[in-house]
Automatic annotation (TrEMBL):
This is Uncharacterized protein. It comes from the Bacteria. It comes from Desulfosarcina widdelii.
Length: 170
């Protein structure tokens, strides 16, 4: 899955498509045995969706005036857990990996924000809360508690989903 000289998994379009086709085939071949994994993916999806109104509000209030936009400077990609989640939850996989090589900026970062649907983004794009957003959350303790709790649950579910998947297919 790693291309020559790159630290980005499946950065080549052919390898990206191959990785996703192999994952889809593996999931298809193990259908009923992956019921628990699909349940974990649905649970993860519900938790993510519960965060999106807050995330939209935080981004709307901080990103337009930001001079150091995370999405433009961060070096992130969709990892195996992200791909597994997309496939098990029935979410369309992004057409390409977010970056092609080390140091690239995300190909989906546009002038008005991310061009990917929130569910199509790698988890790190939801998990990372910038300092300006953290300051806003400090004044919203109930929402902050919900966010922290949901993110921890999502991290746990993603790990369990991967472990369950590996136990089934290996």
């Amino acid at each position: 899955m790693f291309d020559n000289g790159s630290f980005v998994p499946s950065s080549n379009i052919g390898r990206w498509q191959e990785a996703n086709a192999c994952l889809a085939k593996t999931i298809g071949n193990h259908g009923p045995a992956l019921t628990h994994c699909r349940r974990q993916a649905r649970q993860t999806r519900r938790l993510l969706e519960s965060l999106f109104p807050l995330m939209e509000d935080l981004c709307r209030r901080t990103c337009p005036d930001c001079t150091d936009i995370c999405c433009r400077r961060a070096w992130v990609w969709a990892d195996f857990r992200d791909l597994l989640f997309f496939h098990l939850a029935g979410i369309s996989v992004p057409e390409r990996q977010l970056v092609s090589r080390q140091g690239d900026h995300c190909r989906y970062a546009g002038p008005a924000g991310c061009r990917l649907d929130r569910l199509q983004r790698p988890f790190v794009c939801t998990w990372y809360i910038c300092p300006a957003q953290t300051r806003l959350l400090d004044n919203r303790p109930g929402e902050k508690r919900h966010l922290v709790s949901a993110l921890e649950q999502i991290k746990t579910l993603r790990k369990q989903m991967e472990e369950s998947f590996i136990r089934v297919v290996v």
